[in-house]
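Write out the 3D structure for:
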Amino acid sequence: MFGSPPSLAIMAKIAPDPRGEIPTNEADPSIEPQEENSRQGSKGSKRSGNGSDAGMRPKTPESSGKAPIKTNIRKRQSALFQFSNTEAIKEKVRQNKLAPNVYDVKNCYKERGCFQLIAKNPYFENTTLAVIVLNALWLSVDTDGNTADTILTAQPVFVAADIVFFTYFSIELFIRFFAFRRTCDCFKDPWFVFDTCLVALYAFDPFVIGIMTAVQGGSGLDLPTSILRLFRLARLSRLTRMLRSLPELMIMIKGIVSATASVGYTMGLLLLVTYVFAIAMRNLVPAPEDFVPSGHPIYGNEIWGDGVERSINTVFFSSVPEAMHTLIIFGTFLDELASWIIPVQHQSTPCFILSWVYMAIASLTIMNMLIGVLCEVISAVAVEEKESMMCDKVHEKFDTIVQELDKNGDGSLSWEEFLAMLEIPEALDALESVDVDIETMVDLAEDLFMEDGEPVSVTFGEFMEMVLDLRGGQEATVKDIMGLRKRFNKKFMNVKGKMDGIDSNIDSVDTKLDLLLANPQLLGF
């Protein structure tokens, strides 16, 4: 009457499922071992008796008698010319922009004082750029109108212009110098060193040269003034500071630099093809003594221009280098094509056919392939620059807001601080400016700031990553799917751990019940 009842695990194993089938310990081969273990529980062996452990173990190739599966892990090849992988470019830009120690000269400035206030002011930077543009335009006027050797004999308008520009650049350099927190930091800033060299060069020509001339009595210096005037072109290098304000121009310049290797490979292929066809032309072209003038006026007047018809061997293919020059100018760039192809057609049919083959390969194929490569380079550089500008924009807008909300000063963002940030109108406007859906961000932020139901803090870099990933128009990649899989696996493992704890408690209760049923005197019967 008081016999031991079957345990819950055994009852679960022998109970039929809704389909009328009796479940077994045989694992479904389509189910991964981790999922099988999660379904059955790690403590099932205690309640199911001996032999159930074998059903719990994941099958391996050795245990199932199958040969082990060899997986050949192949390294993913880079894209063509190593610039078409846009996702890798974005990841690289984010790592560089969101690094903890990104250099910014404003971080080296003082926190108080009028000089740092002026140096950080955007109006001061824009005014400097405007003066740089005016100085570049005035340089053309000075080159055409100022014929004096020194500033002492120059017209007053040119003297006044040099004084005004030099004074402004000196004051601008003076303000930036005293804005630095430490004096030695100014010599570590590339732009400050660059501008210092330009101001020193501006001081030398024309002011130092004029002073030296006045000291010698105005007789002039025995210096190559024409060469010294060329150094004034260095003032135009200040225009490079405009690259920070004109990102489209930066895209073009970086595209030229990035395309250098690709253009070099294409030109090498073109020279190789040209060299092969030049040798073929030299072997097929008729000898000069075999040339017979046609007497047609089009060849003497319209082609050669002087009424004298000449041999293509002498004019176009006298040597291999000359043949290569001819093929590149006429066959690749198609410059004055009729003046080359018509005499070739008249004097040598094999050379005429070979010329058309060369034009199809060089001009129509290789050159158009180069255009495609350049377009790909510009597209990749544009992606990099847009991502860089977006990272700068997001970092600039949220850096100050996060610092104000970070009350404990730990450099991280908590769930409470995130909710407080959503109540700031400037933060909401910043999110909308970078095309981030606020409602979607709140939904995903719960997963970012919560772990197992407990609030956690995230770093500023992790928060910036979330903001950048939530922009509209972002494409899902394999990396995103793998990240989602990793998060789900983590959640499943947490659930499995909790289920194991419940399973252990059930085992304990089951053991105590078996003990009580086996010993009824413990119950007072």
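The chain is about 65% helix and 0% strand.
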